[in-house]
Design a protein that fits this description.
homodimer, alpha/beta, six-stranded mixed beta sheet, four-stranded parallel beta sheet
C-alpha cells in the first residue's frame, strides 16, 4: 500500500475510534496510537469503582476493534511531541529504555481527551482519586470496599463514623451516579456485616453550584436530588471544597467553613484537557483556554494547518463568528467529531462541524434516571430503561454487552451485590 | 449467643470455607479470618493470567458467602501469631497503624494454604511471577499481553524473538494449562498484529521430571504432551532451572546448560506451606517438613492440642502407623478435611481423616483435557467436558457460574479472544 496517505490518529477514545472506523473504506494507511491497549467506555467507569462491573467489561482491546480493518496499525505508546514542519509524531521511549519510534504523517488527528483537574491542588489527588481512568476507578473500588471492612473492626466510634462517611466532589452525571451507587452499596451490604450498621453510612455529594446536574433543566435537577436523598445520599449544594487532607475535606458553605471527617473521597469535579492540546498550541504559537483546551477552526483543523485535526474534549471549536461553540465534554460530541473528520479526510474537503444534540442522560441508582431529550424531559423508571438501552447499545463488543446485561440483571434482582472483591 | 463455643477459623480457602459452612447448624460463634475479603477459586487463577476470565469471576467476597449464616463473623486481617496456652489469635496491626485485635478461642482451625516456592531463590520471583494469588495472576496477564505489544514495535530481530518466547516452569496441571493457553493466545491474536507474526511465538514448558503431569498415569502424560505440541507449546522434560535473570532462563538438560532468551517467565513449580504452619509448629516445639508443612495427628489436630486443627495443603497428616498420608495439594483434599473438622467440632469426637480420591483432571487448551478417575482414564473432548462441568459446579455463586459459562462459550466459539486488556 505504498504511496497511500499516512494518517496518524492519537487517542483511542470515542473520537479516535469513530475517526478510524470512518476511514475503513478509504485508501489510507492509518496508525492509531494510544498509551493503553484498550478503548475505555468511560461513561461506565464509575460502575467499576463501585464494583458493579469489572474492568474488562467496559474496556475492549483496540486491536480487537480493528482486527478486520486492514488499513489500521495499532501502536501502544505515549506521544512525546509533534514536529508540524517535518510532519512527524515522536513517540516516548519504551519502558525498557529503548528509543521510541518516530511516525511520519500526511494527515494527523489528535484526540487526547481530558483528565480530572484538582483546581491547581494536585496534592489533593492522593486523598481523592478520580474516575476517568481505569486505574483510578480500580483504586477507588478497593478504597470504598475496604472502608466497610475497616469500619467492621474499628472499636472507636468517631473513627468508625469517618470510615462510614463518603464524600463525592462534583455533582455532574458521574458524581451523581457515583453517590447514588455508594448509598445503594451501603444499604445492600447491611446484612454482610455483624459489628457495624452500614445503613448509617453518610454519602455527601459536594457541589459548588446551587443544584446537582447543572447541565439539565432545574426540574430534573430537583428530581435527581430527591432520588438521591431517597437512596440515602445527601446533596450539599453551594458548597466549595477549600482543602483536602488525610481523613478530611474542608468545604465552605454560605460563608462558613465546615470540616468533614472521612476516609473516602471521590473526585468527580472539573476536568482539564490532555497535555497534547498544549503541545499543539505551542507548536503554532497559540494559547490554550482556561481548561487547557486547544482552539481549533470550525472545521476542526489546527489554524494554519489544514492537515492537522484536533477533536474531542481537549479542543474548543470556533463558531466562525469570532466566538466558540459551547459543547459539553461528552462522548456523543467526540463521536460526531470523529465521523466529521473521517469524512473530511476521505473527501479532501474542509467543512464546519455542527453538533447534533440528541439529549442528556444520568442515572441515579437502581431503576432511577433523568433524561433531557431535545427538551423532552423524562424521569424515573422510563428514563432509566432509556439510559440502560443507550449504554448497552454503545458498549463495544457483543460479549461485553451480554456480560454487562447479565451483571445489571443480577444487581437489579439482588439489589446491587456485584463484583465486590478487594484486589490491587 | 453468649456462652457458646468460640471457633476461630484462619483462612478462607477451600478448607476454611467447607469447615465454616459445615458448622452452619452448630451452636458456635465463628470468626473467619482471611487477609483478603474474598475466597479465590485457585484452580482457575491461571485463566485470569491469560485473560480468559476476569478477576471477580473466580473470586467471591467471603461476607457474601456467609451472608445468611448468622453464626459467622468475617474479619479481613493478617494473623500475626498464636498463643496456644492463653488460646488467643493475635491479628496484625491495621495498615493505618492501629493495633490489631486479639481473638480468644475455644477451638482454633488453621488453613493457611501454601504459596509457590522458588527453591530458595527468592530473587527469581521478580522475573518469574507465580499463579497462586490474584495479584500474581493479574501481574502475569499484564506481562503476557504487553509482550505481544512490545514485539509489534520492536525493530531488532533477536529482541523480538525474546518478546515472543514464553517460558513456563513446572508441568503440573497449572503449568500445562498455562502453556496451552499461551500457545492458543499467540495463535488467536495473529490477525490483530501487523508487523509481527505471533504464530512464531515459542512456548516452552520446563519440567525437571521425565514427563508432564507426573501425578497422572504415563499414558495420559503422553497424551497431554502431544496435545500441547499440537497447540504449539513445547514440553522440555528432564530440564532443571538453574538460574533466572533479567531476560533469560538457564536450564540444565542431559548435563548441558542452555540459555533461553525470554521476556516472560511463569512460575508454576514447587510450593511451600504458609508461614502459619511454622508458627504452629514452633508453638508446640515441633518441626515442619521440607515443604514447610505442619505435621498433624490423623484426626487433623495439633499434637497435644485437641482444640487446635490444621488442614489443607499447609499440613501433612500422620497415618497412625508412624508414617504420613500421601495427599496431593488439591482442593478436594482441603474440602474433605474442612468437612471432617466441622463434624469433629460439632460432635466433639476425634476421628482419623481418610481422603476419598475422586480423580484428577487437567485441561490443555480449548477442547482438550485428560482425566484419571479412579483408574478410569479419559482424554480429549469428553475429558474436557468433564473438566468444564466439574469446575463450573464448584465455582461459588450462581452469577459467577453464568458469567464464566458465557465467557467460555465465547472463547470456544471465537477461539479464545477474552479479556485482553492491559491494566494494573
Amino acid at each position: 500500500m505504498a504511496g497511500e496517505r499516512r494518517v496518524v490518529v492519537v487517542g483511542g477514545g470515542f473520537g479516535g475510534l469513530e475517526l478510524v472506523s470512518g476511514l475503513r473504506r478509504t485508501p489510507v494507511e492509518i496508525t492509531l496510537v494510544d498509551r493503553n491497549n484498550f478503548h475505555l467506555f468511560q461513561p461506565l467507569a464509575y460502575q467499576v469503582a463501585t464494583g458493579a462491573l469489572s474492568a474488562v467489561e467496559i474496556a475492549v482491546p483496540l486491536r480487537r476493534v480493528f482486527r478486520r480493518q486492514r488499513n489500521v496499525r495499532v501502536v501502544m505508546a505515549e506521544v512525546a511531541g509533534f514536529d508540524l514542519d517535518q510532519r512527524l509524531v515522536r513517540l516516548a521511549d519504551l519502558p525498557n529504555g529503548e528509543p521510541g519510534e518516530t511516525l511520519p504523517y500526511d494527515v494527523l488527528a489528535v484526540a487526547g481527551g481530558s483528565a480530572y483537574s484538582y483546581f491547581g491542588h494536585d496534592e489533593w489527588a492522593q486523598y481523592a482519586p478520580e474516575l476517568k481512568t481505569l486505574e483510578g476507578a480500580l483504586h477507588l473500588r478497593s478504597q470504598i470496599l475496604s472502608a466497610f471492612e475497616a469500619a467492621e473492626v474499628e472499636p472507636d466510634e468517631a473513627r468508625r463514623r469517618a470510615w462510614l462517611t463518603f464524600v463525592v466532589v462534583g455533582a455532574g452525571p458521574t458524581g451523581v451516579e457515583m453517590a447514588g451507587q455508594i448509598a445503594e452499596i451501603a444499604h445492600a451490604v447491611r446484612r454482610d456485616f455483624r459489628s457495624v450498621d452500614t445503613d448509617t453510612a453518610r454519602v455527601l455529594l459536594v457541589e459548588a453550584a446551587d443544584r446537582v446536574l447543572t447541565a439539565f433543566p432545574p426540574r430534573l435537577s430537583a428530581k435527581a436530588a430527591r432520588s438521591l436523598e431517597k437512596l440515602g445520599a445527601t446533596p450539599m449544594v453551594d458548597a466549595t471544597v477549600v482543602d483536602i487532607g488525610p481523613g478530611r475535606v474542608e468545604v465552605r458553605r454560605n460563608g462558613e467553613r465546615e470540616t468533614i471527617e472521612t476516609r473516602t473521597i471521590v473526585w468527580a469535579a472539573g476536568v482539564t484537557a490532555s497535555p497534547l492540546a498544549g503541545e499543539l498550541a505551542r507548536a503554532i504559537g497559540a494559547e490554550v483556554d482556561r481548561a487547557g483546551r486547544l482552539v481549533v477552526e470550525p472545521d476542526l483543523t489546527l489554524p494554519g494547518h489544514p492537515e492537522v485535526f484536533g477533536l474531542g474534549d481537549m479542543v474548543v471549536v470556533q463558531d466562525g463568528k469570532g466566538g466558540v461553540q459551547q459543547l459539553p465534554g461528552v462522548a456523543p460530541v467526540a463521536m460526531q467529531q470523529g465521523r466529521h473528520v473521517a469524512k473530511e479526510i476521505a473527501q479532501g474537503e474542509r467543512k464546519p462541524f455542527r453538533y447534533r444534540d440528541k439529549g442528556n442522560l444520568a442515572t441515579i441508582g437502581r431503576s432511577h434516571a433523568v433524561a433531557d431529550i431535545k427538551g423532552f424531559q423524562l424521569s424515573g423508571f422510563l428514563a432509566w430503561i432509556t439510559w440502560l438501552v443507550v449504554h448497552l447499545f454503545y458498549l463495544i463488543g457483543f460479549q461485553n454487552r451480554l456480560l454487562v446485561l447479565v451483571r445489571w440483571t443480577f444487581s437489579y434482582v439482588t439489589r446491587g451485590r456485584g463484583a465486590r472483591v478487594i484486589h490491587d
